[in-house]
Amino acid sequence: MKIRTVLLAPWWTLQLLTSAKSFLDNPVIGSSRLNALGLHVGRVKLAARMTAWRRRRLAGQVPVAWRQAFDRDGFVVIENVVPPAEFAAMRSAILSYRGPAREMRQGDAITRRLAIDPAMLAAIPALRGLLARKDLTALFHYVASFRTTPLHYVQTIVSHDGHDEVDPQEALHADSFHSSLKAWLFLNPVLADQGPFTFVRGSQRFTPERLAWERQRSLAEPTAIDRLSARGSPRVAAQDLEAMNLAAAEAVAVPGNTLVVADMVGFHARGPAASSGERVELWSYARRNPFLPFLGGDLLSLPGVAERRVNWLWRVLDRFEARLGQPWRPVGLRTPTDIGAE
Questions:
Q1: What does the alpha-carbon distance between residue 342 and residue 153 come to, in Å, rounded to a whole number?
Q2: Domains, the chain, ordered by start
Q3: Residue 182, class by beta-carbon neighbours within 10 Å (0-12 exposed, 13-18 middle, 19+ buried)?
Q4: CA 295, CA 201: separation in Å to the nearest integer?
């Protein structure tokens, strides 16, 4: 064990300058002694400063109302993001599209994803046009704090599929110690009791109270706390929010054709669903190394590459499943809504 520690110590140390977040897998990141000296909080503060610096350089391209809402709340809600006259046809095309699908179970919820890849974009030109819109691209860049193209999927969430386990996504949490982007364009209305997006307004800001909470959690023994928190996605309780002078989480009920874009360093969750049902959306995700000093330079965002990344990622995880893990199981050709079909 000592030889392994000596050999891996340089690698663990280099990870301090990356988005690595696991207190459990990296004993340097998870060192209570180093974190008592300020290691974790130092990474948090530096990442936040770098994010703010990049966003200042990207702000001019974002519609002012969107930028102000995001800066205030940590997320922005845009209704009728697709012209209503065009939305019904695009929605119908997406819901009827059949392509290679993957599914993952978490607790009593199943998540299905279809990659928005060249085949889907060719079949649904309106989707290509939507993702190329300059105002949306500027917003995505601003929230991600990079000129990077998110990974895009058609995603279906099936709640209460008959299992007794709790969906871990319903626990209020942050994705990491630094900012990242997730976005949902809801194809159907989502009511407050249908597993809505839930967020603590303003929790994306690293106030003195948030930094004190970050320091305290960094001192815990990683093996003594829940695994997801130890892996760098900390869960937060009501008393923690109160200590940080934050309000309770709010369920964001929305009509169909609503886009929600959020910073995942804020506290968020999938709201509980009162009964079984489906939530279908276009889902986008982007997270880069928070310490990079430049806005672009992402070769995987190049046209012809960006739209192929999801399928490449899945194949890599399939190939190295034993080492990297692969929770996304292929389920054949499916539409977004034929969950469980053969």
A1: 21
A2: 17-289+296-334 (2.60.120)
A3: buried
A4: 26
Give CA–CA dist 151/235, Å, rounded.
Answer: 25
**Is the pTM of the predicted complex or chain greater than 0.85?**
yes
| Residue 308 host element (H or E) | none
pLDDT per residue over 2-55, tens digit each? 787 778 889 999 999 999 999 999 999 999 999 999 999 999 999 999 999 999
H/E run at residue 122: helix 118-123
Q: How many CA atoms lie within 13 A of 232 on its CB side?
A: 21
User: What's at 159, amino acid-wise?
Assistant: S
Three-state secondary structure call for residue 69: helix
Structure-block tokens of residue 185: 């364009």
Contacts of 204 (CB under 8 A, 6+ apart): 74, 179, 263, 265, 266
- Interacting residues of 82 by C-beta distance below 8 A, sequence separation 6+: 90, 126, 130, 185, 257
Confidence band, pLDDT 50/70/90 cuts, at residue 184? very high
Phi-psi region of 38 (alpha: psi -120 to 50; beta: other; left: phi over 0): left
For residue 342, pLDDT beyond 50: no
Dist CA 51 CA 263 (whole Å): 11
User: What is the per-residue DSSP string for 123-134?
Assistant: H-HHHHHHHT-H
> What gap in Å lies between CA 168 and CA 231, rounded to an integer?
14
